[in-house]
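Figure-free illustration: sequence to structure, shown twice.
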Amino acid sequence: MTESDIPFLYPQITTTAKNFWNGLKKRKLFSQKCKKCEEVFFPPRGRCPVCSSKDFNWVELSGKGELYSWTEIYMPPLASNGSYILGIINLHEQIGRIITRIDAKPDKLKIGMKMVIDYVDVTDDLTLCVFKKSSQ
C-alpha cells in the first residue's frame, strides 16, 4: 500500500495521543497502562477507564488481532479506485478495538480472520496504520 492509496483527512494529534502517533512513526503500536490499577487500555485517552487516574505509561502492543467487522466505503475522489475498506479489529491483547483501513479485497475478508498491522508514511511527520491478513 502506498501513500496515494490512502484517502484521509489529517488527524488532529492531541497531547493525549501524541505517544501513539510517535509510535506509529517508529513502526510500533502503543497503548496506555495505568500506573495506579495497571489496566492496559486502547484507544488513548486522558484518564484510565477503570480508576480515572491520569498517571500512565505507554506499552507496546503486538499489532495483531482479528477482524471484528468491516465495510466498503465508496467516496470518490478520495478513493482512487472507487472504494476502500474500513474495518474494526479486536486487538490480540483484548484491551479494545481499533478502527482502521484494511489492505484487502472485500471478497477475501471473513469475520474472525487473523490480521496484522502495517504502516503507511503519509508525510514526513505522519504515519498511519492499516491492517492486512496475517500470513500465520
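We now fold a second protein in the same way, so the two outputs can be compared directly.
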Amino acid sequence: MKISKDDNKYIYVIVGQNIRRIRKSKNLTQVELADLIQYNEGTIANIENNSYQTFSLEFVYIISKKLNVPITEFFKGID
C-alpha cells in the first residue's frame, strides 16, 4: 500500500513496517509475537499489512519492552 507522507495514516504504515522488520530480526513469527505481548495474532498481521486503522502508543511500548528494543526503532523513517 502506497501512502503519502501528507496522509494522517502515514505514521501507522511506517510503524507497522518497522514492527515487521524488528519482529523478523528477532526471528519471531506473527503468532510468537502475539503470544509474547498477549495480543491477537490477527492484530499483528493487520498492523504489519497496513490494514489496521490505528493502534496505541502503549501497544508500541509493550512490543518495545518485550523485545528489548528502544521505542525509537519503531519510528525510524518518519520525517
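Summary for the second example: DSSP finds four helices and no strands in the chain.
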